[in-house]
What we know:
Substrate binds at residues 12-14, 40-44, 139, 238. By secondary structure, the protein is an alpha/beta fold. The chain contains eleven helices and 13 strands. Helix content is 36%, strand content 25%. Helix 1 crosses helix 9 and helix 9 runs antiparallel to helix 10 (254-268). The protein starts with a strand and ends with a helix.
Amino acid sequence: MKAKITVVGSINMDLVTISNKVPKMGETLLGQDFLSNPGGKGANQAVAAARLGADVKMVGAVGNDTFGKDLLRTLEKEKIDVSAVEEVDGASGTATILVSQGDNSIIVVPGANEQVTPDFVERHKDAIKDSDYVLLQLEIPVESVEKAVQIAKENDVKVILNPAPIQKLSDALLANVDYLTPNEHELELLVEGRDKKAILEKVIVTKGSEGLIYYEDGQEVSVPAFSVEVKDTTGAGDTFNGAFATALSEGKSLKEACLFGNAAGALSTTKLGAQAGMPKKEAVQNLVEKE
């Protein structure tokens, strides 16, 4: 069964600097390399799902600048339906990424992503209605995320929310999400002041090199990570989410989807750049079968 996934979210250009160490405040360093790569959590998740065989639609915005044209071409090259991606006045979103010693620090400037308003989402509701799963993140206005979730629930479409970058979310929004995919830090903020049990029923907690955990019948289930040679962790979480959504849409069990997502995320770290390292389905399946 071919997965039908709609991603509502950000489309950015990643400006990546490679350095041996992170500069201190006021310090200037010579870096080793610089790359500009298509990115944004939304676009990354869309590319990850498309490379794994899903039928993907993207709902989002790019600026009427050079970055915007490049970003659109990239999505089209990945065979993603971009009929719900609008070109708006102003700059495209950017993420400035410093990669050092196998880890990264990121500053995101939303740009055109701020124009993905609730009305914008409403205009493209047919893309959401005609999906198995809707995949969301928090690099567009949270009211727009709420609108997408509302449309999905009204049409019996499942929702996966990657709550990053973390911010305050309403109880109503969390109640209507089928799966939450936070990291450990994001989970702490999600459960603060809330019924932790209700949140844990929906979470798949990504833990990087330690794999992930989820909860079944109140019990913690651990899914180990795959061992690979890590070059760049940028986009690993987005790859997991795209793979996880694809696997669930194809009818895999929760545990199978977690394994599949872990393998895809691991493979994505073996190359520089978020989208550059995203694997094809055969490579993911081969890694799962080896373990």
